[in-house]
Automatic annotation (TrEMBL):
The keyword Signal applies. Residues 1-22 form the signal peptide. Keywords: Signal. Belongs to the bacterial solute-binding protein 2 family. It comes from the Bacteria. This is Periplasmic binding protein/LacI transcriptional regulator. InterPro entries: Bact_Solute-Bind_Prot2, Peripla_BP_I, SBP_2_dom. GO terms for cellular component: outer membrane-bounded periplasmic space. Residues 42-295 form the Periplasmic binding protein domain. The keyword Signal applies. GO terms for molecular function: carbohydrate binding. It is found in: Cell envelope.
Amino acid sequence: MKKTFLVLAVFLAFIFAGCAKSKRTFSVQKQNSFVDEKKTTIGFSIDTLAIERWQRDLDVFMARARDFDADVIVQNAGNNVEVQKKQLMYLLDKNVDVVVVLAKVADSLKDEIEKIRAKNIPVIAYDRLILNTKIDLYITIDSGQVGVIMGKELQRIAPLRNWLCILGPQEDYNMEMLLRGLSGTIKTSLPIINEIFYTQDWNYDLSRQKMLDVITSGKIPGAIICGNDAVADSVISVLQTYYPDKHIPICGQDADIAACQNIVRGLQDFTVYKPIVDLARTAAEISVRVARGEKIQSLSNLKSIDNNFAEIPAILLKPVLVTKNNIDDVIIDSGFHTYGEVYME
């Protein structure tokens, strides 16, 4: 009798333990809506990692994806369109759940994108809009608003006619959007953009040479709008060497470390901070949600943008003006750069 009772007690203990375990597992699943039996895999095709900005974006993106137990397969095209096309097909072969693309050339990936979407794999354009084909979502920081900020601030500090634009590659659609915003702010105002130079492949030797040509021609601009802070830094290096006694108002975007240092030293007037940590984290979260079946239309703060094929759902984050007066609040207090990095201490 005692033996029978002991066996029964052990049996009941196993049953209750199993029930408790099932209950705990169910509780965890309820608390984390991203839990999925199948491992989620994101394919990230990135133009290049040679720029500080993109390495930071990728690091944040991958860390956030891991928070939700998602894998990321990264393909770095090394600034080469044909390589990016092949790598997109590699991601298709790997049967990833969603593809995120930072495109080298905005209108060069039509065939590859169509093949990926034909397999019911959603495609999200990251920071650069993909043109002339259907994509599922575009997520970026509003480049048009970057141009608006540049135009308004330059009119305040440099209300002269002859502005010079030294931008990035013409195929980078963000440059077109920046110009639209910039031009819209000065349409009925005094400043005139006398020249627009496009720096092919973000080759800073070319932007440096362009600034040298301008200096030697004697046609000194009243202000210089740069496609990003690295372009601005290349321009500043020329001015410091060949034209050190006169300050020309200069701006860029991205809030790179060198740009922040140039701002506090008085060499660059301002930058436009693009909250890339928020952008990369948001893109990672949305990629996981879309990969696991959530509909794009259910996302909050959706806008739309025409990519010359259709109106594409878009999430546009807001950029922020950064000057010497607010650099501590915007850049240092947010943790984007440290005090020591900015002030070189």
